Amino acid sequence: MVRPLVLLDVDGPLNPWAGTPKPANYRPFDIKVGWRRRLRVWLDPGHGDQLKRLAEETGAELAWASSWLHRANAEIGPRLGLPPLKVVEFHDAHGWKYPAVARYAHERPLVWFDDDFGLHPARREEFVHKRRHLTTALIHVDPGTGISARHLDEAREAFGRNP
Ligand SMILES: [Mg+2]
């Protein structure tokens, strides 16, 4: 059985950096990012359960597709109540996250939450086209609001369709 994937970006979908003010439910966390530097991120602790439920209901695996890379497991996951997740690693000079995600997901259906699908439209089209025989739902999340119930429903619907 091929297990579908739910890919998570951090900044935007889980940390609504552009929101002023931040939507309700979000709490500030100051995360150490250097010797003396701290970065404030806003997280909704409810997201952990919502994402775990989505994964459970759809038989999918959650994974990070974020420039936080493995630090997402150290700094973000625990604050949401998420277990350690696999990490898509980006080693490509071109094509943004698409080449790495294409390799990682291979023939698995996927839903992907990110706020930057608008950046490389030609790469996006190519990525989606090559996966046209598989569920490939790129769900744009507004970095002013983060993931909401509507995005989660969209994900369920995408997996509910064939293939
Ligand atoms: Mg982002």
Primary descriptors:
single chain, 163 residues, alpha/beta, Rossmann fold, five-stranded parallel sheet, two-stranded antiparallel ribbon, 7 strands, 20% strand, binds magnesium ion
Task: Please specify the SSE layout and strand pairing.
Blueprint: E1 5-8, E2 27-32, E3 38-43, H1 46-58, E4 61-64, H2 71-80, E5 86-87, H3 98-105, E6 110-114, H4 121-130, E7 136-140, H5 149-160
Parallel strand pairs: 1-4, 1-6, 4-5, 6-7
Antiparallel strand pairs: 2-3
Helix pairs in contact: 1-5
Magnesium ion binds at residues 9, 11-12, 114-116.
Organism: Lentzea jiangxiensis
Protein name: Secreted protein
Pfam families: HAD_SAK_2
Description:
With 163 residues, the protein is α/β, with parallel strands linked by helices. It has one domain (5-160): Rossmann fold (3-Layer(aba) Sandwich). It contains five helices and seven strands. It has helices at residues 46-58, 71-80, 98-105, 121-130, 149-160, and strands at 5-8, 27-32, 38-43, 61-64, 86-87, 110-114, 136-140. The protein has a five-stranded parallel sheet. Strand 2 and strand 3 (38-43) form a beta hairpin. Helix 1 runs parallel beside helix 5 (149-160). It starts with a strand and ends with a helix. The model has no long low-confidence stretch (mean pLDDT 95). The chain binds magnesium ion. Magnesium ion binds at residues 9, 11-12, 114-116.
